[in-house]
Amino acid sequence: MTDTIFITGIVIHARHGVMEHETEVGQRFVIDLELYTDLSESSRTDRLSDTVSYSNVVATATSAFKNTNYKLLERAAGAVADDILATFQRVRAVKVTVHKPHAPIAAIFEDVGVVLTRSRHPLPPARS
What we know:
Blueprint: E1 3-14, H1 20-25, E2 27-37, H2 40-45, H3 54-66, H4 73-87, E3 91-99, E4 113-119
Antiparallel strand pairs: 1-2, 2-3, 3-4
């Protein structure tokens, strides 16, 4: 059984990107997280110590995302996933979505981004 904790719409100003002005000025990014964990104990005990603190997850994700300026969203999202799995032993897997709504693309678009899912153990291969 896997339960999910989700946190959506974390807004962070950071300096990720390939273009020079992106690293100088920075821009707004939005992060959504899904943490896959077993919540059966905390659903019975009502103790924070038996679950994953949302506040601590946001602090970890924000730090991982802002501490280094990456060229690619893929790497920035990977840093968030890696830090969450390293910090929160109760989390079995994490899905990180990073939105870059103001990406320098010569088109009219609503949003662009990446979605990464990382787990402690490799997921079984997809069957045909």
